């Protein structure tokens, strides 16, 4: 009896953990209205390359920006002919995070736009970064960390990774702030990353339970509006801090995602298959051309001709005979039923397409 009671108490303690096994924090399911980043882009010059820069005859914009920089530094290069091989024109991109303050730093990505072979070891010269409104919000400068390498000789060249792109950690300093006052919001909308009416309803109930009153209202499958004043918190930021850590169990659509290039197949746990019969086989058609050259006899009057010879054959490989896939109620049963056919992942993609066309695959089918 004592052992039974211990097992009972252990199960009672495990029940809350099992119940919350599939719950996710609200911050991982939604985007808060106004709390977002902004894309930045700039056009600059990388120097210090080891002879892997732009060919200025093919990239005249590199020479133009180099001339502008030198003239701003007081060096007159008007009418001069210079053809350095250690500079490259680049685009610099970054994302200005929400509530970034003046003086803080952000990471930047540098990508060559000319015919430069590598940015390895280069240094980005001071480059202003503009947003969509045309204003400068950050300035970037620093040494580039390229993620590739190039080795070449007179007759061969080997490239590993992408040496014409790199990053500069903390390579830009914020010079202008985004004019957004979070504390002035009387209400805030939560935008679901994957709109779903069931998930939105659960978010509404979870927020209302957290504050003990009706402060959240589901507007549609992708929006839940929160009345910040009714939360009775010190500020909007305090309300967001409480809301973003609420645990909610999302409801997602059954989905099958396949990548035809790599043969990857990913299935959600809610995928179901109706009872269906499947047969699969491979048919190969081969045509080979083996032309024969016919020459005349020595000292004979004649011409050399090419006689075409074509060999054609059709081969049918042994495939999966008509097999029955039973109706399934779980992902493990779906996988077991499809694996029982003994086909390769690429053939499995074709079978899944056919199952969807036949109406036996009850899930959204996404091909990438």
UniProtKB/TrEMBL annotation:
Gene Ontology BP term (one): bacterial-type flagellum-dependent cell motility
Compartments where found: Bacterial flagellum basal body
Domain of life: Bacteria
Transmembrane segments: none
Signal peptide: 1-21
Keyword tags: Bacterial flagellum, Cell projection, Cilium, Flagellum, Periplasm, Signal
InterPro entries attached to this UniProt entry: Flag_FlgI (IPR001782)
GO cellular component, one term: outer membrane-bounded periplasmic space
MF GO annotations: structural molecule activity
Major place of residence: other
Family per record: Belongs to the FlgI family.
Self-association state and partner proteins as the record states: The basal body constitutes a major portion of the flagellar organelle and consists of four rings (L,P,S, and M) mounted on a central rod.
HAMAP family: FlgI
Protein task: Assembles around the rod to form the L-ring and probably protects the motor/basal body from shearing forces during rotation.
PANTHER family per UniProt: FLAGELLAR P-RING PERIPLASMIC PROTEIN FLGI, FLAGELLAR P-RING PROTEIN
Protein name: Flagellar P-ring protein
Gene that this sequence comes from: flgI
């Amino acid at each position: 009896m004592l052992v039974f009671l211990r097992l009972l108490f252990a199960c009672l303690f495990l029940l809350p953990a099992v119940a919350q096994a599939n719950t996710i924090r609200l911050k991982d399911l939604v985007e808060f209205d106004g709390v977002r980043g902004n894309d930045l882009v700039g056009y600059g010059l990388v120097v210090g390359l080891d002879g892997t820069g732009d060919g200025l005859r093919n990239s005249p914009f590199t020479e133009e920006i180099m001339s502008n920089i030198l003239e701003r530094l007081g060096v007159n290069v008007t009418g001069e002919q210079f053809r350095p091989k250690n500079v490259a024109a680049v685009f610099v991109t970054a994302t200005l995070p929400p509530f970034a303050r003046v003086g803080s730093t952000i990471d930047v990505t540098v990508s060559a736009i000319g015919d430069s072979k590598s940015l390895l070891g280069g240094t980005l010269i001071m480059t202003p970064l503009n947003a969509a409104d045309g204003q400068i919000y950050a300035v970037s400068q620093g040494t580039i960390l390229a993620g590739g390498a190039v080795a070449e000789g007179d007759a061969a060249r080997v490239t590993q990774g992408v040496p014409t792109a790199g990053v500069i950690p903390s390579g830009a300093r914020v010079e202008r702030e985004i004019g957004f006052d979070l504390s002035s919001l009387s209400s805030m909308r939560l935008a679901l990353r994957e709109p779903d009416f069931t998930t939105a309803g659960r978010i509404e109930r979870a927020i209302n339970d957290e504050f003990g009153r009706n402060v959240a209202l589901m507007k549609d499958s992708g929006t839940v509006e929160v009345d910040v004043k009714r939360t009775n918190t010190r500020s909007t930021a305090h309300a967001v801090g409480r809301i973003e850590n609420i645990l909610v169990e999302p409801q997602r659509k059954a989905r099958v995602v396949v990548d035809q290039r790599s043969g990857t197949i990913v299935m959600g746990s809610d995928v179901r298959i109706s009872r269906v019969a499947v047969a699969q086989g491979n048919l190969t058609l081969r045509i080979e051309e083996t032309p024969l050259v016919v020459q005349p006899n020595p000292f004979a009057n004649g011409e050399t001709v090419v006689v075409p010879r074509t060999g054609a054959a059709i081969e049918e490989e042994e495939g999966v005979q008509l097999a029955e896939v039973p109706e399934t109620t779980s992902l493990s049963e779906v996988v077991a039923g499809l694996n029982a056919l003994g086909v390769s992942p690429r053939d499995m993609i074709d079978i899944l397409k056919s199952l969807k066309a036949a109406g036996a695959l009850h899930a959204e089918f996404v091909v990438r």
